[in-house]
Amino acid sequence: MLLLLEDEHKEHLEFLTSVDLEVVKEFCRIAMEFIRKGPNLKVYHTAAQKLDVNAEAVQHVVEGLMYLLTECAKLMISEIDFQDSIMTLGFQEDLKQQLVQFYLENRKEIRAILCKMSMDLPHYHNLEWRLDVQLASRSLRHHITPIVTMKLHTGDCETKEVTVLQTDAVNLLHLTQTLQQALDEMKSSHCRRIVRNINK
Amino acid sequence: MELSVEALGGLQLCGDSAHVSDKAFIVLVRRVCDNLLKDSTDTSVLDDEGLSNVDRAVLKLCFASLVTLVLEAAKHDSDASTISTILEDCKFTADRIDILNKIFISKKPEIQALLSNIGHTPPHIVDVDWRLDFYLKNNHVDKVNEPVYMVTLKTEEGGQEETKDVQFACSMEQLQDLVGKLKDACKNLEKASQL
Q1: ipTM of model
Q2: How far apart are CA A27 and CA A102, in angstroms?
Q3: CB pairs below 8 Å between A and B: how many?
Q4: Out of A117, A140, A175, whose CB is closest to B140?
């Protein structure tokens, strides 16, 4: 799969052909910082002063790189497709290699950052359990009821939630068996076939 | 099992056939158990035809003391002989003691189940639903491609009939972790039951 670059985007990236490879490296680093922590205008100004160009050009090229990297990482574009996608920019071989290298090195981290941004449902984190035998209560003495008390930890990126639950032996067994069936379902031929076809 | 002076007084009245006839006694004991188990709440005990020839004030006292006796006996899991001893002290005839014991022993498990529901407990898991999705992509990331399980635990609280849901999602690894821990709990429960 190729990424089609828009003309405006190409224009912004063209600036890279006019600077040293070392500077390109620095721009890549700044673009990566952008992805990690958001924009830093002060860095643009310093870079612009050093290169003696206006800050807007620096901002455009950093944002252009950032967009290129995130879009490619989002689509999980392969090394070859990445090379072909930036071919239209008419970069020299060493500059192209530099970008490919940087993309491959950082793809995993960018995807992790993107994953963190995505909508998430409360997820399972941990389960603690303990076994009690209830012996008596105010309203009923002399009984022996085994109870499994559980603490279920769930949450998404920001919130953590703890739910205290309990169950008896029969229901615990039922719960375990049902969830084991759920796990086994993933190994069924139906699921395997679908997953294989999607992963193609 | 200890009963208050008031309850014992009521029982003495109840055992006296001059106040409560044999027929009315059977009806009364049945009503006591049914009322506790909420089997018949449509009519009040005072309106029961089978109890119409019992004096109102006596009926109230008898009913209250029988309820006390039944609840205390269920609470302490008393057997027929313990109850007999108390009733004998209250001048019950052997017939009446038999009748009460018979009705009470047959209803005891239900009454104890009712009593065990009193008090605070965490939500009790009674069932579980699951759904298996394959997560493809979202607006930020393409080709996520991983299975996601949606698990819904159905819980009951405080003897209410309605169930409440506890929902969460988990990946394959997380579900494996969960099932592993549950299996561990099952195993330990089994071990403990063999002690």
Answers
A1: 0.77
A2: 11
A3: 169
A4: A117
